[in-house]
Amino acid sequence: MQPDRAQQIRPAAAFYRALRSVREFAGPSLNIEGAVCHGDRVRLFQRGNGGSDGSPSVNAVGDLPLDGFLAWLDVGGPVPQLLSVLQVDLGRIEGVPYGFTDGAVMNDGRIAFVSCAEASADVLSDGPVLGVRFGIIDRDRTVEVADVTGPDGRASLLKLEGIEARLTDSRRFDVVADLDRPDLPALIGELVVGET
User: Fold this and answer.
1) Beta-carbon contacts of residue 61 (< 8 Å; ≥ 6 apart)
2) For residue 191, what are the β-bridge partners?
3) CA angle, 186 as apex, 173 and 93 as ends, to 5°?
4) pLDDT digit string (tens) for 117-138?
5) The whole model's pTM is what?
6) Residue-wise pLDDT tens digits, 27-43
7) Which residue, 172, 178, 150, 159, is CA-closest to 187?
8) Cα separation of 145 and 114, whole Å?
9) Domain extents for the chain?
10) Could you give the CA distance from residue 169 to residue 194 in angstroms, rounded to a whole number?
């Protein structure tokens, strides 16, 4: 990928069809909420919420080959195919499943992510946020999650939909909260791991 090249638009219908065809990854409704470059892979975060056909929703991390993805973007190469899928059970609150909302690569190579339990009817609708979780996927693909709390110690109900790792501090992250209101801007904040 050349940073000085003019912008291009790559039609992606075939790419999304390929992702949807892998039910282990997409479940009943494809909803990619985050992507990171991690070594020689592109990791996509599928948010499992709002299965409209009654099938169980799926939270999953799907790996694409980075070189194949770039070849598809840059020169119209073949549509890249998923190399592996990691399904992740993020838990539920009041019957509402948590779903991935973004991911980031930490400076030690692990993957950090945020997830929300949003009581929405489908992947396009907004709903009340019942809980927020932060998690880490380790190199051996084990997953740890913890509830996000505010400065007062109460459970956060902010819809965290963006996370970026700080290169100088593995315990601090920049996060973006979507207020789901067109009249209000998103909020940018700091998430600190391990402090109460």
Assistant:
1) 43, 44, 45, 46, 85, 86, 88, 100, 103, 111, 137
2) 173
3) 70
4) 998 877 777 889 999 999 999 9
5) 0.90
6) 988 999 999 999 999 99
7) 178
8) 9
9) 13-192
10) 12
Which two structure tokens, joined as six digits, stand for 153? Answer: 């110690």
Q: Is residue 180 very low, low, confident or very high in pLDDT (cuts 50, 70, 90)?
A: confident
DSSP the chain: --TTSPP-----HHHHHHHHT-HHHHTTS--EEEEEEETTEEEEEE-----TTSSPP--EEEEEEHHHHHHHHHH--PPP---EEEE----EETTEEEEEEEEEE-TTS-EEEEEEEE--SSTT----EEEEEEEEE-TTS-EEEEE-B-TTSSBP---EEEEEEETTEEEEEEEEE--S-TTS--EEEEEETT--
Q: If you search the block for the tokens 């920049």, which residue do you land on?
A: 174
The total number of residues written for the chain in this structure:
196
Extract the tokens encoding 188: 């940018």
Pairing status of strand 32-38 against strand 143-147: unpaired
For the stretch 149-158, pLDDT in tens is 998 999 999 9
Torsion angle of C-alpha atoms 67, 71, 73, 77, degrees rounded to 10:
-140
The rounded distance, in Å, linking the Cα atoms of 96 and 69 is 33
Do residues 67 and 41 lie in contact, with contact meaning Cβ atoms separated by under 8 Å?
A: no
The rounded distance, in Å, linking the Cα atoms of 19 and 107 is 29
pLDDT digits (tens, 9 = 90+) for 50-92: 655 556 788 999 999 999 999 999 888 899 999 999 999 999 9
